[in-house]
Design goal:
Order of helices and strands of chain A: HHHHHHHHHHH
Number of helices of chain B: 10
Largest sheet of chain B: 6 strands, mixed
Distance between the termini of chain A: 19 Å
Number of strands of chain A: 0
Structural class of chain B: alpha/beta
Shape of chain B: globular
CATH topology of the largest domain in chain A: MetI-like fold
Largest sheet of chain A: none
Number of domains of chain A: 2
CATH superfamily of the largest domain in chain A: MetI-like
Structural class of chain A: mainly alpha
Radius of gyration of chain B: 19 Å
Oligomer: heterodimer
């Protein structure tokens, strides 16, 4: 049978494939991306030199790296501490927004009264260009207090998390519900054994979007003022001082922050929902 | 099965009627005048055209939907009580396995819900997977299995908590003919070993005849029982059974009963057998 055959392949492919083979496979998978990335950087460097592009328009990659190294722990702008502080603010916002979003989702999925009262507010909140409230938050929580930045990030994170988790909790297949009904399950058991596992892929999808949003929220909130040891301030101040190499270096670190957060979510996802379609081992 | 309890009635359906709201004040009569007794250890098939309410009848027995009139008792209790007592195992047309659970964990699900001790439920799940010959796949996820294997997991899950009755709603309807015949054989083996009472909905005549002790023939609109055919084929049944002259006689008998049911149906339906109104058809599909 074709079915039985493919099952055996999976059985062997998943667990017992030698580590070296898997490493080789990973390398083959990532090699094109690495090559393209390296190629683009090389071309960039070459063009800057060949066309004699001025550093304040577009610094060469090598100049950006130099600025990053030089400004990491010394000089007028300290990118190292700025990176650490921004990282903490983004993560703080991510955590707060996620916790509140998940809590709201559980309320709305469980009680229709909660849905009818929370959902319009959530939609209204989402309609507000959240960036615009950053000055208010700076005022409420203190201009130099990192909490004010976290809250802007949290507000951005809240909506996608809440909407996705609500969908995950409520979009359960009718047949599964019938199965649970045939076992005479309580709503609580259905929540634990069916709705929550069903919700997890939705949750992780939202979380991946939320990592980017929390970073945007934190950095934009920083633009509006506050302590200068954060990436947003480094970007604003170095740009106004025409030190665009430092600006670029700070942008690079902001991207790295986003990538770290994203990969963190992916790593957790792999552990928590290895069964999900998006994470299945490719059948080669 | 010819055990001492063979004559004990497990399911008693009397005067059952089922109406569905069809929007506004109108209702659709899905089932009417249903009387049926099912004895312990019997294998009963419900067969009929799409929309005859055979699945609805099964769902009534399982208390997944309440009857509009009449009574259904299971193990001497009203159907809702029997559901609360977990007297049923259900197998649907789709396997309805949980993606996030391995094969073994899927079979464990009802045992967890019933709060059986951990050691007991693991042993039980293993035994059930052995019964459906999937012992080698306990740690696999559903997506790694073929459709037939997934349906075997669903059967193992339904049998795991030893329900008095197994309710099966076209369980092999989505499988190809060869796999279906193998699954039929498999199911008979399991039924003979466990002695469970099985109510089996199908629209395949050969399947109904091959499996059943009795075939309940139904007609559409409104759904009712038109004939009950005793299947006296020798057991154990196997490949040869499908080649017995008696098998063909019974297949013919069921087919003729189905045709007779169609002919005796409500006049307008018979008159427009090809061009039924589409809204009607949708309603029928929903009920089927």
């Amino acid at each position: 049978m074709a079915g039985a055959g493919s099952v055996l392949e999976v059985a062997q492919g998943g667990a017992s494939r030698p580590l070296r083979g898997r490493l080789a496979q990973r390398t083959r998978y990532y090699l094109p991306a690495v090559l393209v990335f390296g190629g683009v950087l090389g071309l960039w460097e070459l063009l800057v030199v060949a066309l004699d592009i001025r550093a304040f328009i577009l610094p060469a990659p090598s100049a950006i790296v130099t600025a990053l190294v030089d400004s990491w722990g010394a000089g007028r702008w300290l990118i190292g501490p700025a990176f650490a502080n921004t990282f903490v603010q983004a993560i703080g916002g991510l955590v707060v927004g996620t916790v509140v979003g998940v809590a709201a989702a559980f309320l709305t999925a469980r009680w229709t009264t909660a849905r009818d009262s929370i959902l319009p507010i959530a939609v209204a909140l989402n309609a507000v260009p959240i960036i615009a409230v950053a000055p208010l938050f700076n005022n409420w929580f203190g201009l130099t207090n990192p909490i004010s930045k976290m809250m802007v990030a949290a507000l951005l994170v809240f909506f996608p998390v809440m909407i996705n988790v609500t969908r995950g909790l409520s979009q359960v297949s009718p047949a599964s519900l019938e199965l649970m009904r045939s076992y005479a399950c309580s709503e609580w058991t259905i929540l634990r054994k069916l709705r929550i596992p069903n919700m997890l892929p939705f949750f992780f999808t939202a979380l991946k979007v939320a990592t980017t949003l929390s970073l945007i929220g934190a950095i934009v909130a920083q633009y509006f003022g506050g302590a200068s040891d954060v990436l947003g301030r480094v970007i604003v101040q170095s740009a106004s001082a025409l030190r665009f190499d430092v600006t670029w270096a700070a942008i690079v670190m902001a991207s790295i922050t986003g990538i770290i957060l994203y990969l963190g979510v992916v790593a957790v996802e792999r552990v928590v929902i290895p069964w999900h379609a998006s994470l299945r081992e490719p059948e080669v | 099965m010819s055990t001492t309890t063979a004559s004990e009635t497990v399911v008693r359906i009397s005067g059952v009627e089922k109406r569905f709201e069809a929007g506004g004040r109108s209702t659709t009569l899905a089932l009417t005048g249903i009387d049926l007794d099912i004895r312990r250890g019997e294998f009963v098939s419900l067969i009929g055209p799409s929309g005859c309410g055979k699945s609805t009848l099964l769902r009534l027995i399982g208390d997944l939907t309440p009857p509009s009139a009449g009574t259904i008792t299971v193990n001497g209790k009203p159907a809702p009580q029997a559901r609360l007592d977990r007297d049923y195992g259900m197998v649907f047309q789709a396997p309805v396995l949980f993606d996030w659970r391995t094969v073994e964990d899927n079979v464990l699900l009802p045992l967890e819900i019933l709060g059986r001790p951990k050691a007991e439920r693991v042993a039980r799940a293993r035994a059930m997977l052995e019964l459906v010959e999937l012992s080698a796949f306990t740690r696999h996820y559903p997506y790694q299995l073929s459709g037939g294997m997934q349906q075997r997991v669903a059967i193992a899950r339904a049998l795991a908590f030893e329900p008095a009755i197994l309710l099966m709603d076209e369980p092999f309807g989505a499988l190809d003919e060869m796999t279906r015949e193998r699954m039929n054989q498999e199911l008979l083996r399991i039924w003979e070993r466990t002695g469970t009472t099985i109510v089996f909905v199908t629209h395949s005549i050969p399947e109904a005849v091959f499996l059943s002790s009795r075939v309940v023939v139904m007609s559409a609109r409104p759904g009712r029982i038109t004939k009950i055919i005793e299947v006296d084929l020798p057991r154990p049944r196997g490949f040869e059974t499908r080649e017995l002259p008696r098998y063909f006689e019974l297949v013919t008998a069921v087919r003729e009963a189905l045709r007779a049911g169609e002919a005796n149906g409500v006049a307008p339906v018979a008159a427009s057998s090809t061009g039924r109104p589409s809204s009607d058809r949708l309603a029928a599909e929903g009920l089927g």
